[in-house]
Amino acid sequence: xxxxxxxxxxxxxxxxxxxxxxxxxxxxxxxxxxxxxxxxxxxxxxxxxxxxxxxxxxxxxxxxxxxxxxxxxxxxxxxxxxxxxxxxxxxxxxxxxxxxxxxxxxxxxxxxxxxxxxxxxxxxxxxxxxxxxxxxxxxxxxxxxxxxxxxxxxxxxxxxxxxxxxxxxxxxxxxxxxxxxxxxxxxxxxxxxxxxxxxxxxxxxxxxxxxxxxxxxxxxxxxxxxxxxxxxxxxxxxxxxxxxxxxxxxxxxxxxxxxxxxxxxxxxxxxxxxxxxxxxxxxxxxxxxxxxxxxxxxxxxxxxxxxxxxxxxxxxxxxxxxxxxxxxxxxxxxxxxxxxxxxxxxxxxxxxxxxxxxxxxxxxxxxxxxxxxxxxxxxxxxxxxxxxxxxxxxxxxxxxxxxxxxxxxxxxxxxxxxxxxxxxxxxxxxxxxxxxxxxxxxxxxxxxxxxxxxxxxxxxxxxxxxxxxxxxxxxxxxxxxxxxxxxxxxxxxxxx
Length: 496
Description:
By secondary structure, the chain is mainly α.
């Protein structure tokens, strides 16, 4: 009996879309990455500059990208924009990287983060609790399966099953979780500002806010290194890997273009509103960190004040602040908040990403079976394919390494996509544009320049060059794949 197919349902309103944007952006990063950023740049002023610069780049990208979203409010989002601005090869390279690393790697990493923080409440969930282990397989490598990996996989499978039931089920969960964590972040900020002020930390953090020093990572025996101007530029670029990762996924709402009410307006407004909200919250959260904990600490210290932001246990800066404000119960409160945050982030990312693979399959550039909707009107097969690969990344244990070069690929394709605005202004000057990029051409150029500088820094900086070049190689590997498996479809009309 043939599988019954449904059709896309326009069920996502502006509020739903904003919740998908904010919920997908806010995962575990904001609660952790400031520790590494503070070690890279070494001062409170430059820590805030990193987050401000990240906010400027993200907002500039969102308000520029909105022109393409309003022109092509189709399922597939960025894949469709690249196809229309350039060709199917460029679009395929993006979709290839999205499936292999960008979307699935993030899903796996966020799932593992959820499981690790669950371990604060239920200690059985721990990377040390190995449920299964093989002998040496290749060299000294042995496969291990921990309770953390088990819970991460169960989470991904469960969220996928919910979203396969229809877009309304997925958006309901997103609305509840996104609203909850926005309120919780606001309470963290208010509580930190009213109850967490630490006079010693304020004095230490703000008496000299611009002296840039690079501090060693935990476990590395080295002296702090004063940074020259060129060294500071490189340090800011490397530090922004964490802040940009924490601010990413704002574009995911575009993947669901045909499921959005009044998409020409809603897509642009939701990306602008969502990124503005998240940017403001992130900056305020970092101000709270600086008011509650000293920036410079020691990895050997046994107190929160002694470890500071730089060497907070497992980089859990937000947990350290919560413990400072609430005492021992703060760790539990923060673990619950991060569990809600990571669950909501994965729901938004899982909901959105499958639509891109569906669009690729409709163009004949991906497994044909994924170009189908189930009776509930969602691309269930694409959802389960995404789930399978993300779970394999959880099993492989390679998700953390993959994320080291995810951001290079992400920003590279953002740059190519924003340049597409200029391409389409030239090649399709009379095409309907319900929204024109605000500040064009200045703001899109600013985005392209800043984001390109970031990519160059990642390619040349000693700590990031290897992973960034591997990321570029991963993208390039998509070229022979396209010609091996997609060449016979390359000249067929794009299915709208």
